[in-house]
Design the sequence.
């Protein structure tokens, strides 16, 4: 019988975490926020340098950083008058790397 071939997924997202997971994908679904997160992979930057790197006005960048911080994707650290931003933890880099690998799988560069 075909039901023998159907297995239960090894991954189950609890009801209490569904909204958080959906919000993470929503945050990463915006090209500007994705650029910010990618720019912070493996490093930290102040707003001025990050704005120049991703090509955004500082006010717009600050708004996006606030959203990313509330979503738990980035964190900030104040040193003197400067505020430095970095990814919250290694899970964020892992999500981006997995998504990029999947994108390459779906649409290889130079492939069909």
Sequence:
């Amino acid at each position: 019988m075909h039901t023998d071939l159907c297995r239960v997924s090894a991954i189950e997202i609890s009801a209490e975490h569904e909204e958080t997971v959906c919000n993470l994908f929503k945050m990463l679904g915006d090209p500007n926020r994705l650029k910010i997160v990618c720019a912070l992979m493996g490093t930290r930057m102040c707003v001025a340098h990050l704005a120049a790197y991703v090509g955004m006005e500082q006010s717009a960048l600050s708004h996006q950083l606030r959203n990313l911080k509330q979503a738990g994707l980035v964190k900030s650290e104040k040193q003197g008058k400067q505020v430095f931003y970095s990814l919250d933890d290694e899970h964020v880099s892992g999500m981006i790397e997995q998504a990029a690998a999947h994108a390459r799988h779906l649409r290889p560069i130079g492939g069909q």
Summary: DSSP finds five helices and three strands in the chain. The first strand starts at residue 44 and ends at 46. The mean pLDDT is 91. Strands lie at 44-46, 74-79, 82-87.
